[in-house]
Amino acid sequence: MKVGIIGAGLIGNKRARSLGDAELSLVADVDKKRAKELAEKHNCSFTTDWKEVVTSDSVDIVIVSTTNDYLAPITIEAIKNGKHTLVEKPCARNPKELLKVISVAERHNDVTVKAGFNHRFHPALMKAKEILDSGGIGKLMYIRARYGHGGRKGYEKEWRAKPEISGGGEMLDQGIHLVDLARWFAGDFDQAIGYCTTMFWDMKVEDNCFALLRNRRGQIASLHASCTEWKNLFSFEIFCKYGKLEVNGLGGSYGEETLTYYKMKPEMGIPDRFSYSWPGEDVSWKLEFGNFIEAIKKNKQPIGTLRDAYKDMKIIFDIYDWSKRHQ
Predict the structure, then answer these.
(1) Looking at 76, 111, 146, which one is the last position of a domain?
(2) Are residues 200 and 240 in the same domain?
(3) Collapsing DSSP states into helix, strand and coil, what is residue 145?
(4) Residue 235 — φ and ψ, nearest 5°?
(5) I need a surface site. Which of 54, 61, 125, 254 has the fewest CB within 10 A?
(6) Residue 200: exposure state from Cβ atoms within 10 A (0-12, 13-18, ≥19)
(7) Co-location of 152 and 248 in the same domain
(8) Which helix (H) or strand (E) element contains residue 137?
(9) CA–CA dist 307, 312 (Å, integer)
(10) Residue 59 resides in a domain
(11) What pLDDT is stored for residue 144 in this prediction?
(12) Does residue 63 surpass a pLDDT of 90?
């Protein structure tokens, strides 16, 4: 299958390196230099007009990895032109925009559309899900998760700091991964509260969000998303009746990806400990794209749908609303 990528930034480059047997045929970016550089790496054509990608006969699959303000309109046009589409999280700037995308996708059910949630495909998180689902660790009680980076000089002037482009701050950017993973492990949540605040960066969106989610089964997720985490951090802990699963790191600047399984003994005390690690490259992008290709070929839902993205985003905007009302 032939792929067109719209958005030749960091994520677009990661996607281009993770296509497996698919072929990159066309790259688009408003920055001609950036589009050309990515195209030359993969020996394909480039353009500065994204509309050429969604209408091209040489493209079967479109990957949308632009700034958030373009995610929804480009995805809608790609779907209307019969292209299978993978759109990066958060898939739109707000729930209202995303519902428009979902409406178009559901009218074109011959087209497979996937939300880009590569964190579900990190081996440590997949292994944790396997252990949890096996039932031996008991019922999930609560989740505690932290995800953050420290920005960089001039971060407050970048597009993520502009609400008209991004739709929200750190909670929508990295926090949506935490919400999505919490839902993946615990199921849907019914209540969402939290404080979203700007503590360091001079910008109109939050640089920290402290959130609590609760479902009807009484399970709670405590989440902290931050771009004042001066040393990049990813920590996801799942506490169950008979043990704990702890994922740390995502590779690269976030440190080696590891899973530690603490298994309670019948007499309690110090638990048995089992450790797993995945050094080397981040394979989540390849695994996620492989799942997308399988969904296309078998005409089934991929792991990580637009409805998942909508549920995640709805939780985040409920938190935004709660935070504004309780400042």
Answers:
(1) 111
(2) yes
(3) strand
(4) -140, 125
(5) 254
(6) middle
(7) yes
(8) none
(9) 9
(10) yes
(11) 98
(12) yes
